[in-house]
Amino acid sequence: MDTSSLLPLMGRNSILFQEDLHSHEEELSKTIRSSRFLVVGGAGSIGSAVVRELFAREPLALHVVDTSENNLAELVRDIRASLGYMHGDFHAYCFDVLGPEFDAFSKSFNAGNTGYDYVLNFSALKHVRSEKDPFTLMRLLDVNVFLTKKLLDFATAIGANKFFCVSTDKAANPVNMMGGSKRIMEMFLLGENGQTNVSTARFANVAFSDGSLPYAWTQRILKDQPIAAPNDIRRYFVSAQEGALLCLFSILQGSDREIYFPKLSPKLHLQSFCSMAEKFLESRGFEPYECASEDEARERVSELKVQKKWPCYFFQTDTTGEKDFEEFYTESEEVEWERYHEIGVVKNEAIVDGAQLEQFCTRIQELRRHQTWTKQDLLESFGLLLSGFAHRETGRYLDNRM
Q1: Which of 26, 94, 135, 275 has a 20 to 30 A CA-CA distance from 233?
Q2: How far apart are CA 208 and CA 9, in angstroms?
Q3: 187, exposed or middle or buried, with CB in 10 Å at 0-12, 13-18, 19+?
Q4: What is the rounded distance in angstroms from the CA atom of residue 250 to the CA atom of residue 121?
Q5: Cβ within 8 Å of residue 255, ≥6 positions away
């Protein structure tokens, strides 16, 4: 869905960051036209939106890496069908940065190949459900932390001007291991003392992004299945395009160790999932019909559909890692409010203890070497860096929900 069609579902009537974009467009476009970009995780929801913004402004080179062959194919088809072609070098690669293919790719730059001015990382395991077992959790750490570290080392080695890695609002005072992993990722960035500048961005839930709960509603409709949503959780929502613009400002204008986030305003306010679900169904021509149980919702799809109604099951949340509220910065962080109209900037010094980061890496390597670890082992490893980590464990996970 494009941003304009999403606005009513997000409870808004205007697109974020337009005043800032109008003020800085000339500078942003000029920088892009004279730069070479590597975008890792570039076929996901935010990554592909950033790729589109860059492509439209004609960079010298735009190379996209992703592990999803299907998503890469769709990204290229979408760009060709909407934006056509650009004068610079555009190429899509399908491999895993954590695998040997990227190691070989990296060596080609040591042989005199032209490098990149900007290295951008949008790879992430982004679901709270990823902490349901210790094996998926280790993969979460690999992608969210160690892949980022590997790319940062690469960016430094080739002399890139900027390394950017997307973060999340859930990294501010994290209560789940996904948010905790992103906060640790931020700490690795903030602890970097190389010549390559680093920056990141925290933003809210991306409405209807791949794998999100709102996206799941589109699939339930296609498959004649009921819709489910929590009735006690409210979140901030942005579109993929809005998230991409926030990232673009951080990538191109963020100083070293700065974190960009959207300012709260009448344009950006909390929206409940069940309210969004109702608006979504109404936009599809159906009246929401609330059921008392999952069983009732599953059983009544055919009956209600002919009446232009759709069964919904709204429930109270009891799953691990759910945060009661969202925040983009903490009380201990210094925030600059005046630089942009709708964007706040967290400013950081290099205050991360390098010895603690090394201790964390060593601990994870030891667990891997023994090829056995538990969720508790990983929680204790998180504790090496995140003092007072307020992890919320209920013993129930999102896979227990419809």
Answers
A1: 135
A2: 10
A3: buried
A4: 13
A5: 197, 199, 347
Mean pLDDT of 255-279: 89
* Token pair in block for residue 37: 């970009």
Q: Are 122 and 166 in contact (CB under 8 A)?
A: yes
Give mean pLDDT, residues 33-45. 97
Distance of CA 200 to the CA centre of its chain: 11
SS3 244: helix
- What distance in Å separates the CA atoms of residue 41 and residue 117, rounded to the nearest whole number? 17
Q: What is the separation, in whole angstroms, between the first and last Cα of the chain?
A: 24
DSSP 92-133: EEE--TTSHHHHHHHHHHHTT----SEEEE------GGGGGS
Does residue 329 surpass a pLDDT of 90?
no
What Rg, from alpha-carbon coordinates, does the chain have? 21
pLDDT band at 397 (very low <50, low <70, confident <90, very high): low
Residue with tokens 């790879």: 123
Give the tokens for residue 114. Answer: 């032209």
**Residue 303 structure tokens:** 């009956």
- Looking at the whole model, is its pTM more than 0.90? yes
Residues 141-187 have pLDDT tens digits of 999 999 999 999 999 999 999 999 999 888 888 888 888 999 999 98
Q: Write out the E strands in 44-106.
A: 61-66, 89-94
